[in-house]
Specification:
The chain is built from five helices and nine strands; from the N terminus they run E-E-H-E-H-E-H-E-E-H-E-H-E-E. The protein is α/β, with parallel strands linked by helices. Helix 4 packs parallel to helix 5.
Length: about 220
């Protein structure tokens, strides 16, 4: 059942996530939709940000980062714990949960962290200039928002922007077709590289969770 606004924060339970410099305490909502818990694809992306492959020494310090469909905000919080300036975005009713997690993990943030509303397909002028890095975890399963999501990825990126996307491969319903359509859409605008499992976190990787790196086609 969907909960609205501050309701998401009324009853929460905590998940501890170890990261390089400490432990994040992420509050998940007891009542709500898919935004209210940490998904496995988020952990794969969050942990990849801390690998030697992606982040040799202090690579994220002072980088401008925007996360889309952030849910609990865990991926953005890890980026902010590595010194990045992060804006975690989601639908308006989810923003209070991200803010709650910012408050509970303030001591881990060495860059900066804000939460904001961004519905895919809508105006992104508040997020300009284009960030260095855009992060997206497990957001490829809404048919109606597939094209708006790709349009937002285009609006938020230029030739200097890296986009990292994780998604869990799903075999039920129309999910395989959605993933295929998503790949077709991104290939029109981006050079797409799949990061192999051996370059991901040694623990947090899985054959059914894909990690894509996108760069704008010139
Ligand atoms: C499956 S959850 C993933 C949450 C988080 N990224 C994670 O992996 O733990 C998908 C997220 O996308 C957000 N979302 C869905 N449709 C959206 C839209 N049209 N615009 C912005 N965010 C949207 C949801 O609110 C939710 O937080």
């Amino acid at each position: 059942m969907a909960a609205k606004g501050a309701d998401l924060c009324d009853r929460t339970f905590e998940r501890e996530i170890e990261c390089k410099d400490g432990i994040l305490k992420i509050k998940q909502a007891e009542v709500g939709d898919e935004s209210c818990v940490v998904w496995d694809a988020a952990l794969v992306l969050a942990k990849y940000l801390q690998t030697e492959h992606f982040c040799p020494t202090k690579h994220l310090v002072n980088k401008q980062v925007v996360e889309l469909g952030a849910g609990t905000g865990v991926v953005g919080l890890i980026a902010a714990s590595c010194g990045a300036h992060v804006c975690c975005t989601d639908l308006p009713e989810v923003v209070p949960l991200i803010e709650l997690n910012k408050t509970s993990n303030q001591y881990m943030i060495t860059g900066t962290f804000t939460a904001a509303t961004l519905k895919w397909g809508q105006d992104v002028s508040a997020f300009q200039p284009c960030p260095d890095l855009v992060l997206v975890a497990d957001c490829i399963y809404y048919e109606e928002s597939l094209e708006p999501l790709v349009s937002t990825l285009c609006d938020l990126s230029n030739e200097n922007t890296t986009i990292l996307i994780t998604y869990e491969e799903r075999t039920t319903g129309n999910k395989p077709q959605l993933e295929k359509k998503f790949h077709q859409l991104i290939k029109e605008h981006f050079i797409v590289e799949e990061i192999p499992e051996e370059q991901q976190d040694p623990v947090y990787h899985s054959p059914d969770i894909h990690l894509l790196k996108l760069k704008r086609k010139l």
